[in-house]
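ok so for the tutorial part 2 we go from a plain amino acid sequence to predicted C-alpha cells. step 1 is just haveing the sequence, like this:
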Amino acid sequence: MFVDHFGTLLEADRELWRATVRGWHLYSVPLPRPAGDYRTYPIEITELCARRALSTDERARAEQQLRTFVAPHMAAVQALRGS
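step 2 — the prediction. this is what the C-alpha cells look like for a chain of 83 residues:
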C-alpha cells in the first residue's frame, strides 16, 4: 500500500518509519465477508488515513465548512497579534 502510494520502496519505508515514530501503527484487518461482497470507492490517503474520495460538490462544501469553522479562531488570533 505504501509503495503504491509513495512510488518507491525507499520513500514508502521512510514514510512508514515517520508514521511509526509519531505513534501510528498499521494493522491488517481481515474482511468478515468475501471482498466481492463490498462496494468499492476511490479513496485518497492523507496522513495515513484512508477515506472515500469526495465528489467535487462534497469537497466544496467541506472546504466552506472548514473556512466557516476556522474564521472566528483566525480573527481571535489576528486580534491578539494586533494588540
